[in-house]
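Data availability (excerpt). All sequences and predicted token strings are deposited with the supplementary files. A representative entry, Signal peptidase complex catalytic subunit SEC11, is shown inline so that the format can be inspected without opening the archive.
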Amino acid sequence: MRPRQLASQVLSFALVLSTAFMLWKGLSIAADSPSPIVVVLSGSMEPAFQRGDLLFLWNRSPDTKVGEIVVYNVAGMNIPIVHRVVRNHQGDLPGKKLLTKGDNNGADDVDLYARGQFYLDREKDVIGSVVGYIPFVGYVTIMLSEHPWMKTVMLGIMGLMVVLQRE
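Structure token line:
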């Protein structure tokens, strides 16, 4: 393979990766969410959402109503949680305070929150409300996280495709 052809293929691959990154960042800005697309990793929201569903988030609405499905992060945990708002706390607390629960869970989420936390802060903890979904598309992500060797295989196949591609 000629060096010029190899350079062209490497640049094409870099262009694809940078385009995907720009689309992700554009979605993040439009949705006002650090993670505008998430995958359901457990069965806690069945029957509303199944494991592997791909969720689209929107975080531009200041009001969160009881019954709305939100995605939130807990301090010290890297995995976002998808659950339904079951109560809005008001009173003397500043800001919007929420209590959540998985549809398929017996108890509310207080045990999932950070130590000493009894509610979610809408501004600090919630990364978005679910506005749409595609069923089961996220299973690829689940498979890659549960079987790390698959990432290496997929990257190897992609690299081979770039190298062997002829224009």
